[in-house]
Specification:
Distance between the termini: 48 Å
Strand order of the largest sheet: 1-2-8-5-3
Largest sheet: 5 strands, mixed
Oligomer: single chain
Bound molecules: protoporphyrin IX containing FE
Structural class: alpha+beta
Radius of gyration: 22 Å
Strand content: 5-15%
Order of helices and strands: HHEEHEHHHHEHHHHHHHHEEEEHHHEEEE
Length: 454
């Protein structure tokens, strides 16, 4: 994990970057709120790679070049923290990995990294693949009845059941899995509003907070009981709960109880909607592209109808490209960081404590780095040279997603299991539209008809 920093620039004052003037008192807040995906990239097209975005109570600077992403997320990550905006999301709960900073973050990340590497994941592989097969059995009723199936909520439940199984080994009844999905969705809404309204006066009420608090109480309570039970009756299992209970820091100490609970909650929260939404985008895009579908079926059919093993799954290059290309077009609205001291990017001042944002949606569609950027073309991930700082669904640098390999594993097994059995048809003329949520979903869902393959 390299966190080497580049020395801060001289204190000579530089100008703030150019940008729109906005309206007195509110800046460009209404336009930004109206178009969370398209507005930032439109500013980059008009003002360049470094733009000052006037907003009330926040100095926001948008950067839009892969070199700048490298500068902030990788080379100087130790000087760019997630900042108060992210700390606010956890309210009074103990910090977990995504909102830890500095040495505290480094120590926990080091202890948990091995729990998400290929060795650890291959030990979980059979449990994950079994759970996915069971989840996909629900598609059969739709193949028989012809009733359309909205795969967006279906994949939420499927991915949650896989995560819960990977975490606790025991299988939960579907009603409990659905309760987890509903609870974490309420929790996510409340958190999203706290983040979006960060910096605004506290007298303005944040929506959805009561439901969010009830959700947090329910699942923290649930996790408390499960951890206590596991401590009382340890099992010989390589599941994520055992991994967290066994995780050792460099001094040999372990995570205290409330931090095990927060890290578990975070894994569920950070791992379920993200993976389910990326898969939803993949099925939606495959549904719209006969060429990509043919490529995906060819790769899956080469497995001869068998469940692939861990090594075979890792070698599914075209399916992985289908997933990557869907995530490219899915592109979330922004990631944010805050510099601990004044910096300089592209000749402009980046003032200490401002909010620097990067728009994956914009970067993933920038014609300087992608040919025919609006086209769903998985082949580009096999044949084109991709700038790794222009493709950032998991972000980049030492703080990139710790669950990335698990997400790929779940995605590849889910795609294989479904495509081996079924053809999912989207309605004629269907085109996925972005829906803002903790993870970017598809407006109105993806109602597919399910046909059994010959
Ligand atoms: C397709 C699925 C996923 C996507 C697109 C995704 C995306 C991301 C992104 C963009 C970040 C960094 C955010 C930032 O820098 O501001 C992140 C961090 C994180 N993700 Fe994921 N994620 C996915 C799946 C998962 C899974 C399956 C898990 C766990 C089982 C997970 C756990 C985490 C954690 C703990 C962090 C914080 C890492 C740190 O701060 O060091 N994610 N994820």
């Amino acid at each position: 994990m390299s966190t080497a920093t580049v020395p801060p620039p001289t204190s000579r004052r530089r100008p703030l970057p150019p940008g729109p003037r906005g309206l007195p008192g509110i800046g460009v807040a209404p336009r930004f709120a109206r178009d969370l995906y398209g507005y930032l990239p439109s500013l980059a097209r008009e003002y360049g790679d470094v733009v000052h975005v006037p907003l009330p109570g926040v100095t926001m600077i948008l950067v839009s070049h892969p070199d700048h992403v490298n500068h902030i997320m990788n080379r100087n990550m130790a000087r760019y923290w997630k900042g108060a905006r992210n700390a606010e999301i956890v309210n009074d709960e103990p910090l977990s990995m995504p909102v830890r900073e500095g040495e505290d973050w480094k120590r926990v990340r080091r202890a948990l990294n091995p729990k998400f590497n290929d060795g650890a994941l291959s030990a979980l592989y059979d449990v994950i693949a079994d759970e996915i097969e069971l989840g996909v059995e629900r598609f059969e009723a739709h193949a028989v009845s012809g009733e359309p199936l909205d795969i967006q909520p279906e994949l939420n439940v499927l991915v949650m059941s896989v995560l819960l199984r990977a975490m606790f080994t025991t299988r939960l009844p579907r009603a409990d899995v659905e309760r987890y999905v509903a609870t974490l969705t309420d929790y996510g809404f409340a958190m999203g509003w706290r983040m979006a309204m960060h910096g605004m006066p506290g007298v303005i009420p944040r929506p959805r907070q009561r439901a969010g608090r009830a959700a947090a109480n329910w699942f923290m309570d649930h996790l408390d009981r499960t951890i206590a039970e596991r401590r009382a009756h340890p099992v010989a299992s390589a599941d994520l709960l055992s991994s967290l209970l066994d995780a050792r820091f460099e001094d040999g100490s372990t995570l205290p109880h409330d931090e095990v609970r927060s890290e578990l909650a975070t894994i569920l929260f950070a791992g379920f909607e993200t993976t389910a939404s990326a898969l939803t985008w993949t099925f939606a895009q495959l549904g719209c592209s006969p060429e990509a579908r043919a490529g995906a079926y060819a790769e899956v059919d080469a497995l001869g109808g068998c469940r692939p093993d861990f090594e075979q799954v890792s070698a599914l290059r075209y399916l992985r490209a289908c997933f990557d290309e869907a995530q490219r077009l899915q592109g979330g609205p922004f990631y944010n960081r805050s510099p601990l001291e004044d910096d300089e990017i592209g000749g402009y001042l980046i003032p200490k404590d401002c909010t620097v944002v990067v728009s994956p949606y914009g970067l993933h569609r920038d014609p300087r780095f992608w040919r025919e950027p609006e086209r769903y073309d998985p082949g580009r991930f096999l044949h084109d040279e991709i700038d790794k700082y222009a493709f950032i669904p998991f972000n980049v640098g030492p703080r990139r997603c710790i669950g990335m390999r698990l997400a790929y594993l779940e995605a590849m097994v889910t795609l294989t299991t479904i495509l081996q059995r079924y053809e999912l048809r989207v309605p004629d003329g269907f085109a996925p539209e972005h829906q803002f949520h903790m993870a970017t979903g598809i407006k109105g869902g993806v109602p597919v008809t399910v046909a059994r393959r010959a």
